[in-house]
Amino acid sequence: MPLPEPPPAGAPMLPAATFAGSAVMVTGGGTGLGRAIAVEFARAGAAVGIVSRSAEHRRTGVEAVRAAGGNAAEAEADVRDAAQVADAFDALESALGPVRLLVNNAAANFPVAAEDLSPNGWRAVTQIVLDGTFFCAQELCRRARAAGDGGAVVNVLATQAFTGGPGMAHTAAAKAGVDNLTKTLAVEWAPYGVRVNALAPGLFVHDEMRAELTALRTEGAGVDARRQPAGRLGRLHELGWAATWLCSPYAAFVTGHTLVVDGGNWLRRHFVMPEFVPVREQIAEALRPPAER
Predict the structure, then answer these.
(1) How many independent structural domains does the chain possess?
(2) Which domain holds residue 127?
(3) For 60-107, what is each residue's pLDDT tens digit?
(4) Can you name the residues that pair with 270 across neighbouring β-strands?
């Protein structure tokens, strides 16, 4: 018997006015997990700023927020550039008011054996995930402190941050850095009224997943569900609820915490482990055309 399904998408998890008068920035908020998070903030009353390098992604994020009844604006930024981050805050604050809530969701990822990972590939991922998270969080804290306001930050991790990630050395290392950064900033910024927490999602399948990651991680909903202790996959709005709760007044005494939302999957162990397959072979098999498998 699987874990029970959550209430349906659109059901309120927090009171509708929880974030009334507040604005949240969601980096990478136009697709997948980021868009789901943005929508739940809108349903809880927040004005939502979508930040992405892609105009198309920004548009789809804004449309999703507005479809949920929320107020939305967009800003272009490469989060690896602190000056662009500051400009994005300026643009969103001009449209929505002071931004005191932040979800650091922007990320990059692709499967590769560590010895094949190029310097540019390493930097592309680590700078977006780790540098970008720091620059965005730092900008929020500076503004909140200057105004005498509090704030809340949620950083999106991956459970590979705790275990390592064969085939994902760049991502796992960067996410581990963000996990540590979350704890450090929580202590430093608590005196300013700024809380910093993290989310570590499990498998939340969505249409924007990279094809090679889908090939490696999923074999259809039925097979995927049987691989989870929960007996099912995560529903996108469940992750949105977790993010909104961590930023809400109902979590006012929670800071420096990483909330794992994965149905217990990262804790799973076998008495007799499956036969070991080197990651290079796993990647090669996943990338072979289906007709050749």
Answers:
(1) 1
(2) 23-209+236-261
(3) 999 999 999 999 999 999 999 999 999 999 999 999 999 999 999 999
(4) none
